[in-house]
Automatic annotation (TrEMBL):
<feature type="binding site">
    <location>
        <position position="99"/>
    </location>
    <ligand>
        <name>Zn(2+)</name>
    </ligand>
</feature>
<keyword id="KW-0862">Zinc</keyword>
<comment type="function">
    <text>This enzyme scavenges exogenous and endogenous cytidine and 2'-deoxycytidine for UMP synthesis.</text>
</comment>
<feature type="binding site">
    <location>
        <position position="63"/>
    </location>
    <ligand>
        <name>Zn(2+)</name>
    </ligand>
</feature>
<dbReference type="GO" id="GO:0055086">
    <property type="term" value="P:nucleobase-containing small molecule metabolic process"/>
</dbReference>
<dbReference type="GO" id="GO:0004126">
    <property type="term" value="F:cytidine deaminase activity"/>
</dbReference>
<feature type="active site" description="Proton donor">
    <location>
        <position position="65"/>
    </location>
</feature>
<dbReference type="InterPro" id="IPR050202">
    <property type="entry name" value="Cyt/Deoxycyt_deaminase"/>
</dbReference>
<comment type="similarity">
    <text>Belongs to the cytidine and deoxycytidylate deaminase family.</text>
</comment>
<dbReference type="GO" id="GO:0005829">
    <property type="term" value="C:cytosol"/>
</dbReference>
<protein>
    <recommendedName>
        <fullName>Cytidine deaminase</fullName>
        <ecNumber>3.5.4.5</ecNumber>
    </recommendedName>
</protein>
<dbReference type="GO" id="GO:0072527">
    <property type="term" value="P:pyrimidine-containing compound metabolic process"/>
</dbReference>
<feature type="domain" description="CMP/dCMP-type deaminase">
    <location>
        <begin position="11"/>
        <end position="138"/>
    </location>
</feature>
<dbReference type="Pfam" id="PF00383">
    <property type="entry name" value="dCMP_cyt_deam_1"/>
</dbReference>
<dbReference type="InterPro" id="IPR006262">
    <property type="entry name" value="Cyt_deam_tetra"/>
</dbReference>
<keyword id="KW-0378">Hydrolase</keyword>
<feature type="binding site">
    <location>
        <begin position="52"/>
        <end position="58"/>
    </location>
    <ligand>
        <name>substrate</name>
    </ligand>
</feature>
């Protein structure tokens, strides 16, 4: 994992992590019991949270990352600085494959994803590391 020049301040990272960890409390996960919280920092300085929402028909559930990005986009945000994802396990879990492509829709390869474990420790990776050789709207001429 290459070092990342953080595009966010220490204070922004503190808020981002606190909100992602707290968002786990809102998770609706009666089937898996796997709580996930997420928080996005927009380029306008707003923090948008999400939590996973499961469904009895398993594929219908929605991951915390997609809840957060969907909420942000509906609120008019299209530009983001960082994402934090928090789980209760150790080591920290990374976004699933579907979420990686979803996140990539609104970010680029240098976008940082901070992944928090159940003890509050984190690792950070870029979208380029999480989804190498990816494509996004720019590759489709959008």
């Amino acid at each position: 994992m290459a070092p990342i020049d953080s595009p966010i301040t220490a204070q922004e990272l503190e808020i981002l992590s606190t909100k992602a960890i707290a968002a786990k409390e809102a998770a609706y996960c009666p089937y898996s019991k796997f709580r996930v919280g997420a928080c996005i920092l927009t380029t306008s300085g707003e923090f948008v949270v999400g939590a996973n929402v499961e469904n009895a028909a398993y594929p219908v559930g929605t991951c915390a990352e997609r809840v957060a990005f969907g909420t942000a986009v509906v609120a008019g945000h299209k530009s983001f600085k960082a994402l934090a994802v928090a789980t209760d396990i150790k080591p920290a879990a990374s976004p699933c494959g579907m979420c990686r492509q979803y996140i990539r829709e609104f970010t680029n390869g240098s976008f940082p994803v901070y992944m928090y474990d159940g003890e509050g420790s984190y690792k950070v990776m870029t979208m380029g590391e999480l989804l190498p050789d990816s494509f996004g709207p720019g590759d489709l001429g959008i």
